[in-house]
Amino acid sequence: MSSVLIETTVDLEWAYGSRSILPGGTGFVTEAIVPFEHRRGMSLVFALEHSKPCARRRRGTQFEVIAKFQPGMTEHEAVRLYQSEVVKRGADPVPAVIATGARTWIPLPLPSERALRAREVVRFDVGCVLGGYHATVARTAVAGEPEARLDSAYRAVQAGIEAAIDAVRPGVPASHIHAVAVEATHGAGLVTFPASHIGHAIGLEPYERPKLQRGSETPLVAGEILRIELRHFEMGWAGLHVKETVLVTTAGARLLNRSSRGLVALD
Question: Which of 243, 242, 237 is nearest to 103 (CA)?
Fold first, then answer.
């Protein structure tokens, strides 16, 4: 259990999404310390206020890098560009993965002096921190026309994340989000997709509970912010990655990212 100091009168049904989280179902607290499960993190308190501006700043910097990333630019140059754009927008950068070619299948590669070549894959896995809140996004791009294998595999990954987002509702077990994503990805033809997990909650910490994986029966709660991601890495070939930050609402998932999650073409 953790505690958070709420300094002014707050409607906790709005902030937490459910009165049942609070002892006795109390709806309002004034200048009090409220205990809550750490898995809810701080993403339930003013999450939208902080995470959405962070998502906007991250999205703008991502667009800046994509617009300028052309064959000949190195991974180091792309990462430096991304992080400088984050700082310009008033947020704090976090370690970024921008990998090219066969290096995209390495889960967490350090940036190198390798330059992008025509028709190669690029994997972006970037984020920022604003007001103490974390936000991340991942996209896959190609420098030119994608080969048929790449296009087919990415369409399956995209089908999986879209199924996962559509399944987000308060009360749904975290394991169900995982199950529908895997089913959709396999159904779209990528039967080798493993997906031990497809994300988790995010807020004041970059990794918070619940984890979206098989066997996790923790129900989602309105007000939580989730990082939903699908990654498919094939050694020696390529790594495909798409990640969204979403707010759990009573009506389903509210996307905090606005950029297209399709395969990005670098013109």
Answer: 237
Residue 182: DSSP 8-state: H
Identify the residue whose tokens are 């004034």.
30
> What pTM was computed for the model?
0.77
Q: For residue range 48-99, what is the model confidence (pLDDT) as tens digits?
A: 444 444 545 444 455 567 778 889 999 999 999 999 989 988 999 999 999 9
The helix (run of H) or strand (run of E) holding residue 190 is: none
Domain match, 56 and 163 both: yes
**SS3 call for 228:** strand
159 occurs within a structural domain? yes
Phi-psi region of 117 (alpha: psi -120 to 50; beta: other; left: phi over 0): beta
**Alpha-carbon distances, residue 241 vs 21, 87, 147 (angstroms):** 34, 25, 17
Characterize the bridge pairing of strands 121-130 and 97-100: antiparallel
DSSP summary character for residue 170: T
Is residue 44 within 8 A of residue 210, CB to CB? The reply is: no
The pLDDT tens digits of the residues spanning 11-34 come to: 333 333 333 333 443 333 333 333
Residue 122, classed as helix, strand or coil, is strand
Is 42 part of a structural domain of the chain?
no
**What is the distance between the alpha carbons of residues 178 and 164, in angstroms, rounded to a whole number?**
7
**Closest listed residue to residue 204, CA positions, set 18, 17, 30, 47:** 47
Same domain for 128 and 237, yes or no, is: yes
- Cα-flanking dihedrals φ and ψ of residue 241, to 5°? -150, 130
Specify whether the CB–CB gap between 85 and 98 falls below 8 A.
Answer: no
